[in-house]
Amino acid sequence: MSYLLATLTALVLLNSEAFGKSVTGLFKSEAARQQRGQFITKFMYQGSDGLLVIRLDNVPLATEKESRLLLFQDMDSQLESLNCSERISKAQHAISLTVDEYNQTIPKESTPTAWQVLYADRYTCQKDAVIPSHPDLSFSILLFNADSAGNPLEHFSAEEAGLHTFYFLLLLAYFIASCIYFKPLQQALKKGGPMHSILRVLSTVLALQGCSALCSYIHLARYSRDGVGLHLMGSLAECMFLCIHISYIFNTENIDVIFHLAAKTHVETSFKAPGSFQHVNIEGTRVLLAAAHQAPHQSQRFVYVSTDEVYGEGLDQVFDESSPMRPSNPYSTTKAAAEYLVRSYWDKYKFPIIITRSNNIYGPRQYTEKVIPKFLTLLQTNKKCTIQGALPKSRHFLFVDDAINALRLVLEKGIVGEIYNVGTSCEIPIMQLAKELVKMVKNVPDSEVNDWLEFVPDRPCLDLRYPISCEKLQQLGWRADVSWTEGIRQTVKWYQDNADFWSDQEPIRSKLEKVTNK
Question: Where residue 199 falls among pLDDT bands split at 50, 70, 90?
Fold first, then answer.
């Protein structure tokens, strides 16, 4: 009965109105130079004549930069061997982006054909030219089938049709297997015996896998029509997929310690997509807690790494572990909510948890959305450091080695059920940070430092500072060993020596987000 209801629900959702396929993002001059044409998307196409619609929000800037979109057909292996100028000349279609909407016909294909889309502009092949500090170009690209009158039709690409068929066959196999084996499995579970635990784990995994396949089927079928899909179904599929693997690991391995650091952390993004932060930071924590608590081998420690931002802004107050939580943005709110989940397992089950709340951690290999690597990568690509707002903001910075030592000490000497602040007295105004990095990277005199700073509008609810007291952790014997001077020196050197790590980084996305943003 439940399977029938799920199937009917899927049919209702799939028959609702849809409009076409889409990819959104930013055209970036520096990325185009680094990659000899910025990779935008790749799609497999099969069917009648298609229609590619490109939309821009800043046509004057695109015209000034001589922006172009390059389309390559079945040239994956050849593109790597071509230099910048050769790549541009080999494009099957070169679209000059001089209007706010441009329509490009994709010819009829009887077999699956791979199309690759790159962005280029006047700076792409000029290695020595200085790229002005213009904003990146926001775009959306939509792919339709078109009839003879140019009207878009619903369609599957070859790749998506294959995925959709795979999930349909997988669902069919699960349905047939459940019809055959449900009663024998139910009877075996009732009898108990030495195989009881194995059968219980196996049946749980298979049930979750079947539900995940159903959600993926619904999500991808809708996505192949509108380029958006059903985020609820996608999230459920990803969550179930995660549950399957985490449950399997905890049921088959003897795991003693869990350090839970996984999270979505970019504050500005959390205002644009709060749902994804809730899904990852709260639901992900719940899944991990449940799997660890229910595992046959009981874990000895579950260390949850939170943030000083849960306290909210502190102008004159220094926060200790007993201070109330007053998060001021969606990111810190999800971290506070996850803390309550973690504490509930201690309060109800005496599950051995410890919570840490740390300052801004920095060091080599940090993702470029964070302030220090963001400034470093901007400067190394001849762009200005962007300072948000006019109010004097500052942050406490903790070097990654000191953060690791703190977590190790908490594991060895920390008291279960307790919270520990992890931070330093190294508070640096963001303006001072930017100027210091300008001097280190650009090697300019003081009189020219301000030329590398650019003031931009403030983001919502930007707290000025987060001062915390670490006395409780220091009583365990912890001290920050790496000075700011040494830590920032190591960090700057690493980013200068490893441009290949950060030159083409894009926002971190989940597995299903990657599938639906090809």
Answer: low
**Residue 331 appears among annotated catalytic residues:** yes
Burial class (CB in 10 A: 0-12, 13-18, 19+), 512: buried
Q: How far apart are CA 228 and CA 21, in angstroms?
A: 7
Residue 86 annotated to the active site? no
> Is 248 noted as a catalytic residue in this protein?
no
DSSP letters of 235-285? HHHHHHHHHHHHHHHHHHS---EEEE------HHHHHH-HHHHIIIIIIHH
Given the residues 30, 238, 283, 309, the one annotated as active site: 309
Question: Nearest-CA neighbor of 457 among 391, 369, 368, 371?
Answer: 391
pLDDT of residue 425: 85
- The position carrying tokens 């599929």 is 237
**Quick one: which of 420, 179, 398 has its CA closest to 303?**
420
> Token pair of 60, please?
């004057």
Quickly state the pLDDT bin for 342 (edges 50, 70, 90).
very high
Compute the distance between CA of residue 209 and CA of residue 186 in angstroms, rounded to an integer.
Answer: 18
Q: In what helix (H) or strand (E) does residue 388 lie, and over which residues does it extend?
A: strand 385-388
- Burial (CB < 10 A; 0-12, 13-18, 19+), residue 32, is buried
SS (H, E, C) 176-222: HHHHHHHHHHHHHHHHCCCCHHHHHHHHHHHHHHHHHHHHHHHHHHH
Q: Which amino acid is at 1?
A: M
Question: Which member of 119, 167, 331, 420 is catalytic?
Answer: 331
Q: Give the pairing of strands 68-73 and 109-120.
A: antiparallel
Q: Where are the beta strands (DSSP E) in 75-197?
A: 93-96, 101-106, 109-120, 137-146, 152-153
For residue 152, which phi and psi values (nearest 5 degrees)?
-70, 140
| DSSP assignment letter at 400 | H
Residue pLDDT, tens place only, 290-331: 989 988 888 899 999 999 999 998 878 899 999 999 998 999
Annotated catalytic residue within 30, 308, 321, 463: 308
| Cα–Cα distance measured from residue 58 to residue 64, given in angstroms and rounded to the nearest whole number | 10
Burial of 217 (C-beta count, 10 Å sphere; 0-12/13-18/19+): buried
- From CA 388, how far away is CA 390, in angstroms rounded? 7
Fold of 253-504: Rossmann fold (3.40.50)
Task: Read off the pLDDT of residues 24-46 as tens digits, 9 standing for 90 and up.
Answer: 889 999 889 888 899 888 777 76
CATH entry 2.60.120.380 includes domain 18-144? yes
The sign of the CA dihedral 500, 506, 508, 512 is: negative
Distance, in Å, from the CA atom of 342 to the CA atom of 354, rounded to the nearest integer, reads 9
